[in-house]
Amino acid sequence: MSSFGDRVRIRESPETLAVGVAGLEGEVYGFTTPSTTGVQVIGGAPDDYALNVSLTPTDATLWFHPDLLEFLHHNAGAEVVVGNKRLVRQTDGNWIEQPVLGSMPTIESETQLSLFKKLMHAFKSRRKRDA
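Predicted structure:
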């Protein structure tokens, strides 16, 4: 199953053809529990789980059933900067933490990094459970 930062292609299905997104590519931006958030999920959400994808070249973000997403790669080299920390995506999908040169740690940046780590843990837990 795809996770945050992965590059994916939208699979062809009656649902994706109907909204004109079959074959488009994008990046996974997050996940949700549709019964709680009320988002519209292309392909439905019988498992009460959906992935948000930012589509190229439209910049539209849509929610999809995970089975409608074809994993392409982990976007190695992608970076996320939170406060004074920089996370760099590796080819195996892991994130390596690196300091941002010239920055000083703050309580706010440490809190943001902690939140990011919790989100990444949630993605990993969900992937392992669904495997």
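Summary: The helical segments are 14-18, 34-37, 107-130.
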